[in-house]
Amino acid sequence: MEMQTIIPVGTELELRPATVAHVADMFVVLSDPKIYRYLDDEPPPSIEHLHSVYQRREKRWSPDGSEQWLNWVVCPGGSKPVGFVQATIINASTAWIAYVFGSKHWGKGYAHAATDAMIDHLGEVYGITNYMATVEMENTRSIRLLERLSFRLATSQEAQCRDLSSTELLYVR
């Protein structure tokens, strides 16, 4: 399959394949406690821990080889990363998507532009036509973002068998 490439987003942003070279900068971004209000994760306990996470992600495949993992750091104007976007390709036409940005970068349009560019790339390069994302019910900022990206709340039938918590919603496109 195609090597993961840099994705230019207009003249303002770049999506760069996430590598261990980004660990120090992403440790700063991911140490922001505000971003964990609606996430199941916690801040990385150490740079060494995050390094091991990024080493696994650089392989671009799940350990069992059943899913393709694509991760990009989002860099405005050639500067340091402000967050990341990711896709887990689960079959020939479907991907789970996610995004996380440092709180001081919220409201600047980075999440919308980066996620939209990633979705376009996934469609063009990987043939993905179906997208899924989970979001906490109270995360109105993320819900609005998904709706602006043409996602809709999944029907109960679509959400069936998706192992959602009682506070999670499934959005599809």
A few lines on this structure:
The chain has 5 helices and 8 strands, in the order ββααβββαβαβαβ.
Structure, described:
With 173 residues, the chain is α+β, with helices and mostly antiparallel strands. Helix content is 29%, strand content 28%. It is globular and about 40 Å long.
Count of DSSP strands: 8
Which structural class matches the secondary elements?
alpha+beta
Cα-based radius of gyration, to the nearest Å = 15 Å
Strand order of the largest sheet: 1-2-3-4-5-6-8-7
C-alpha geometry: globular
* Unreliable sequence segments: none
- Report the sheet with the most strands, covering strand number, pairing sense and barrel closure: 8 strands, mixed
H/E element order: EEHHEEEHEHEHE
- Give the oligomer, counting copies of the same chain as homo and different chains as hetero: single chain
